[in-house]
Amino acid sequence: MTEPARPAAGDPAVEVRGLRKTYRTTSLRQVVAVDRLDLTVPSGGVHGFLGPNGSGKTTTIRMLLGLVRPDSGSVRLLGARVPDGLPAVVGRVGAVVEGPRFSPDFSGRRNLRLLAAAIDVPGTRVEAALERVGLRERGQDQFRRYSLGMKQRLAIAATLLKDPALLILDEPTNGLDPQGIRDVRATMRALADEGRTVLVSSHLLAEVEHVADTVSVVARGRLVAEGRVGDLLGGDAAQTVRVGVADPVRGAQLLVAHGWSVRDDGAVLLVSGAPGAAAVTEVLARGDVFPHEVGVVRRDLESVFLELTGSGARAGRAPEVAA
Ligand SMILES: Nc1ncnc2c1ncn2[C@@H]1O[C@H](COP(=O)(O)OP(=O)(O)OP(=O)(O)O)[C@@H](O)[C@H]1O
């Protein structure tokens, strides 16, 4: 395969500013699917585009690809403005947005060969693409005999025929079993390690948490957080100290007086904002409260996500406003 084309050094692979899209429902109400969204996907690596169901991810991805026209805002893909500049970069962008459409009775390999011929790329790319997604051994099997995960990986292989610099995958792990999820994750990692940019959307954070280098979190069509996964999880704010004391009321008073927030979950006090367990024990001991249990609960991206998006899928839905 040739070296994947990349945008100029330092340019983001995707840059979205002030993007907005409303839909009109059958009851003539307006749904704000995407609301003044800013999104920056750095060039290279895996970028998780995360948000609960209905938070506007698919609509955004469709706007990135010029499939849906935004009400306002701007989109740049690999430096080119969408939609006007899209023809110049479309050959370097691969996307899996809807369920893959392959002939069920043909083998995976034959499906890819037909596709390669249709888009006028050399058939020799087929083997490399199958290899990249770990399907070379199963390339001769009929598509309909593939597992859901294999079908997804074949869809990714199809995008690789063009040797894209940017891959956009909408919920590629949806409905997959744990092994299927691991396989798709490994494929995304391998593609990013080749210098490509992989933009992957998901409503299930656990599915991308371990593979994404950077993430953007959306809720109700708006960006609520972005950055490196480690930064979102790191820092004092991201850890909670759990401490068990005989007198939780007195313990909580001491800790709150120190400026930390405290929640009594019935069994232990959960302290956030403290620099660590040692600081919490010290403050308590100075007030003659001696913990019988101390621990640190590290937050995972899931809890950060639930906090940011207002806890759960319902909170992420697009608001309806009167037309
Ligand atoms: N064609 C459409 N007509 C009307 N409303 C739409 C249309 N497409 C999407 N919506 C609404 O826009 C909002 C955002 O939907 P979208 O599919 O972009 O979210 P999503 O984050 O991709 O959700 P999911 O993870 O469930 O696919 C939802 O309220 C959805 O019902």
Automatic annotation (TrEMBL):
<keyword id="KW-0813">Transport</keyword>
<feature type="domain" description="ABC transporter">
    <location>
        <begin position="14"/>
        <end position="245"/>
    </location>
</feature>
<dbReference type="GO" id="GO:0005524">
    <property type="term" value="F:ATP binding"/>
</dbReference>
<dbReference type="InterPro" id="IPR003439">
    <property type="entry name" value="ABC_transporter-like_ATP-bd"/>
</dbReference>
<dbReference type="InterPro" id="IPR003593">
    <property type="entry name" value="AAA+_ATPase"/>
</dbReference>
<keyword id="KW-0547">Nucleotide-binding</keyword>
<dbReference type="GO" id="GO:0016887">
    <property type="term" value="F:ATP hydrolysis activity"/>
</dbReference>
<comment type="similarity">
    <text>Belongs to the ABC transporter superfamily.</text>
</comment>
<dbReference type="Pfam" id="PF00005">
    <property type="entry name" value="ABC_tran"/>
</dbReference>
<protein>
    <submittedName>
        <fullName>ABC transporter related protein</fullName>
    </submittedName>
</protein>
<dbReference type="InterPro" id="IPR027417">
    <property type="entry name" value="P-loop_NTPase"/>
</dbReference>
<keyword id="KW-0067">ATP-binding</keyword>
<dbReference type="InterPro" id="IPR017871">
    <property type="entry name" value="ABC_transporter-like_CS"/>
</dbReference>
